[in-house]
Amino acid sequence: MKANFIIGKKQIVVAALMVILGGAIYVNWAYANNNTLTLDAVNEAQNVTETKETANYGDAKLVNTQTQSDDEYFTQVSLERERSRDEAIETINNVLASVDSTSEEYADASAKILEISAQIESENKIENLIKAKGYSECVVYLSGESANVVVKTDGLDAQNAAQIKNIILSEQDIKAENISIVEVK
Q1: How far is CA 135 from the centre of its chain?
Q2: What angle do CA 106, 115, 147 make, to 5 degrees?
Q3: I need a surface site. Which of 41, 120, 139, 162 has the fewest CB within 10 A?
C-alpha cells in the first residue's frame, strides 16, 4: 500500500501558526527564567556554607536582587507577560478563524486557549493571595511544572517564603523544589 500524503495550504498555515505560538511561549518562558537563572547562581553562592545535614530539600529558594525602580520593574514585567500571551492567543484565534481548519486543529486550538486562560487565572489568583499577605507588588510565572515568584519586600525570611510556597502548593500541582522566589527590595 502506498500512502498518498498531500500537504495543502491549510496544513502549512497551521504549522506556521503553531511554530509562531511555540516561539511566543518559549520567549515567555525564557524571559521568566532569565532573571531566575542568574539570580539562582547568587543564591547558591550565598548558601555554600550550608552542609548537606542542614539543607532542607524542597524549600523555596530565596534570591535577593535590586532594580532601578521597583514600580517600573513590576509594570514592565506585567506588560511583557500580557503582550506575549496576547500574541499567543492571537495566533490561536487565527487558527480558529481559518476556514480551512480541520476539526482536530480547531479542537487543539480551543484546548490551548483554555490552557492559557487557566494559567492566567491561576497566576492572578496566586498573585492576589500573596498580596493579601501584605506584599505590595508580586508577579507569578507558571510554566508547566515550575513556578517563579517575584515579590517586593524589605526582607523575606524563611517563614514568609514558606507562606508564599504554601499558597502556590495549595493552588497548583507543582513540586516544592520547583518553586523559586525572587525578592526585589
Answers
A1: 20
A2: 155
A3: 41
pLDDT at 55: 47
One-letter amino acid for residue 4 of the chain: N
Q: Which amino acid does the sequence have at 41?
A: A
Spatial separation of the C-alpha atoms in residues 143 and 146, rounded to whole Å? 5
Q: Grid coordinates representing 6? A: 498531500
User: Which three-class secondary structure state does DSSP give residue 4?
Assistant: coil
Q: Counting every residue, how long is the chain?
A: 185
Q: b vs e for 92-119, b when ≥16 Cβ sit within 10 Å of the residue's Cβ?
A: bebbeebeebeeebeebbeebbeebeeb
Cell numbers of 48, please? 555554600
Q: Residue 74: what residue type?
A: F
- Residue 37, pLDDT score: 41
pLDDT tens per residue across span 111-162? 888 888 888 889 989 999 999 988 888 899 888 889 999 898 888 888 889 9
Contact assessment for residue 52 and residue 123, using Cβ atoms and an 8 Å cutoff: no
β-strand 146-152 against 138-143: which pairing, if any?
A: antiparallel
User: In 3D, which of 47, 32, 56, 59 has the Cα closest to residue 139?
Assistant: 32
- For residue 182, list its beta bridge partners: 63, 150
Residue type at 50 in one-letter notation: E
N-to-C CA span, the chain: 67
